[in-house]
Amino acid sequence: MPPKLLTRLILALVAVAVAVSGAAAARRHPAPANFTASGNPVYIWPLPKNFTSGTQTLAVDPDLALDPKGAGGGAAAVAEAFERYRHLIFSPWAHAARPASAGYDVARLTVVVASADETLELGVDESYTIYIAAAGGANSIVGGATIEANTIYGAIRGLETFSQLCVFNYDTKNVEVRYAPWYIQDEPRFAFRGLMLDTSRHYLPVDVIKQVIDSMSFSKLNVLHWHIIDEQSFPLEIPSYPNLWKGSYSKSERYTVEDARYIVSYAKKRGIHVMAEIDVPGHAESWGNGYPKLWPSLSCTEPLDVSSNFTFEVITGILSDMRKIFPFGLFHLGGDEVYTGCWNLTPHVKQWLDERNMTTKDAYKYFVLKAQEIAIDLNWIPVNWEETFNSFGGSLNPRTVVHNWLGPGVCPKVVAKGLRCIMSNQGVWYLDHLDVPWEQVYTAEPLAGIDDAAQQKLVLGGEVCMWGETADTSDVQQTIWPRAAAAAGAYVESVGGHIRPRPGNNRPCSATLLQMPAESPRDRCSPSHKLLCSAASNRPWLVFYPVTQIMQRVRYT
Fold first, then answer.
1. Co-location of 222 and 259 in the same domain
2. Higher pLDDT, 543 or 224
3. pTM of the predicted model, to two decimals?
4. Over the stretch 390-429, which tens digit does the pLDDT of each residue have?
5. How many CA atoms, within 13 angstroms, populate the side-chain half-sphere of residue 490?
6. Could you read off the pLDDT of 215-236 as tens digits, one per residue?
7. Of 83, 337, 469, 519, catalytic
8. Is the same domain home to 184 and 213?
9. Final residue in a domain of this structure, among 492, 521, 548
10. 36, 92, 301, 442 — which has fewest CB within 10 A?
11. Alpha-carbon dihedral sign for residues 293, 296, 301, 305
12. Do both 64 and 149 map to the same domain?
C-alpha cells in the first residue's frame, strides 16, 4: 500500500475512533440535571428532596466527634451508625498532618434525634435535615455540621447523605465538604423500597447477606425481601419441624435460627426491614425431602398436598417459628406459578376435590386463603404474588398486599379494588435480566396509570428482584449493582425544589447517576468511594462494572 494512502487510512480510522469515542462520551456524560450554587454537579444519591449549597470548602477533622442531642441522640444505634460512617469517610491512610495554624472547619457532628423509640415498622419517619456551616435549625452550628431527625432511622439516613458530602482530596490528603454551606431536607417518596434476595437457588453465606444489607443502606433501600426457600432447597432451621432443612443442599449450606435473628438485627441497625417469604403452594418441592407426606405423590412433588391437614399443620409450625424471628409486619406467602394439573392425577387428591365439588383452580384459591388466615392469626399482613389477584382477587383478604411482577398495568387494577400493591415489573426491575439498562430501571414509574391521590397512597413502593438461578457468591453483588441504585432513585426521590417526575415523563437525575467515568473504579479507591473500591475497606462487593457505576461516590479533586 502506498505510504500516502496508508497515512490517509490511518487518519481516517483515527477520525472515526474520535467521533465514536466522542459520541460514547456524550452518552456517558449527559448534562447533569442538578447543580450546586457554584454550577458543579451534585454527587448525592439518591438526590435529596430539597437542598441549597454554596461555594466554600471545609476541612473535616479526621477525629470527627459525635455530639448527640435530643431524646434519641444518645441511642446506641446512632453511635454505632456514626462509627460505621466515620470508618467509611476516613480510611486509615487518610490522616494527613494539617498545619496547626489551619485547624479544621468541621470537628464535630451534632446529631439531634427527637424520639428515643427504636421501633422499626413500615412507614417509620425517615426524614432528616442537614445543616453544614449554615444557620437555620435550633441546633445548627456555623462552621460545623448538624443532622436533625425525628427518629434514629432518619438520623441514619442523614449520616449516609453526610458521608456522601465528604470528599477525599488527593492533593492535600484531607477530607473536605465542598460547596458549603449546605442545607438539605429529605424524606423518601415510598415507605417500601425493597430488594429481593433469593437464597434457595444458590445458597448465600451470612457474610454475603450482610454485604448486601450494607450496600442497600448506601442507596437508602429499606426492605430486604428474603426469598429463603424454593423448590431447589430448604436451608432454614424450623424447630417445630426439624426435618425440613433436610431439603438444604448440604449441612454447611443452612441458616440456623440464630443466623436468621442475627441478619434481622444487623439489618435493623441500618434501618432495614427483613420481609421473609415461604412460597406456597407451588415452589415447595424441597419441603418433601424431610416430610414426604407433603408431596401429593412421588410423581407429584409440587404443589403441596392441598387435601392433607398435615400440610397446613406444617405451614402453621413454620410461620409460628418464623414469627419469633421476623418482627416486620409483612410476610410474603408467594402463590405464584402454581401448576395444579397433578392434583387431578393423584387419586386421593382427586377424590378430595370431587367430594367438595372443587376444581384445581378452586383448590388453589382454598390453599392461598387458608395460608393467609394462618399468617393473619400470627398478626402478619400477607403479601402474595400477583397471580393470586389475577385469579381470585375479589376473594383475597382485604389486608392483602399484592406483589406485581408479570408486567405493567397490574398495580392500577389492584389499588382500584382497594388493595395495596408493591411493584416489581420484571421488564425493568428483575436484576437477573441482564439486558435491561439502568436508564430503564431508573425511569420506571411505580404510579404509572394511577391518577387518583387516594389510590396512589395504596402503592407501598417498589422492589428490585435478585433471583438466584444465575447468580451466586461470586457475582451476586455485581448483578445487583449498579442497577438497584437506579431503582432506589425512583423509590426515594420526592417532590421538591429540584426534581420529581410526573408519571410517564422522563425523570431528570442527579449527577451521581449521570457522571460515569471511563476509568476503572479501582483507580479511584478512597474512603469516599465506598461503592467502587474494595482494596482499602475489605468490601468485595464494591467492585462493579468499569464504566456504568451508578452508585459511584467519586468527587473529583
1. yes
2. 224
3. 0.85
4. 999 999 999 999 999 998 999 999 999 999 999 999 999 9
5. 31
6. 999 999 999 999 999 999 999 9
7. 337
8. no
9. 492
10. 92
11. negative
12. yes
337 is catalytic: yes
Q: Where are the alpha helices (DSSP H) in 421-515?
A: 426-429, 438-443, 453-456, 476-480, 483-492, 511-514
Which residues make beta-bridge pairs with 169?
Answer: 174
Residue for cell digits 449493582? 481
CATH code for the domain in which residue 543 is found: 3.30.379.10
In a domain, 306, yes or no: yes
DSSP H helices in 357-462: 360-377, 387-392, 410-416, 426-429, 438-443, 453-456
User: Exposed e or buried b for every residue in 264-283, given b needs 16+ CB within 10 A?
Assistant: bebbbbbbbbbbbbbbbbbb
Residue 115 grid cell? 424520639
CA distance 204 to 351: 41
Mean pLDDT is lowest, of 8-22, 80-94, 272-286, for 8-22
* pLDDT tens-digit series, residues 477-496: 999 999 999 999 998 886 44
- The span from the CA of 408 to the CA of 418, in Å, is 18
Spatial distance between the Cα atoms of 25 and 453, rounded to a whole number of angstroms: 41
Is 23 part of any domain? no
> Does some domain include residue 417?
yes
- The fraction of the chain above a pLDDT of 70, given in percent, is 78
Residue 267 sits in which domain range? 192-492
250 residue type, one letter: S
To 10 degrees, what angle do helices 360-377 and 309-323 make? Answer: 30
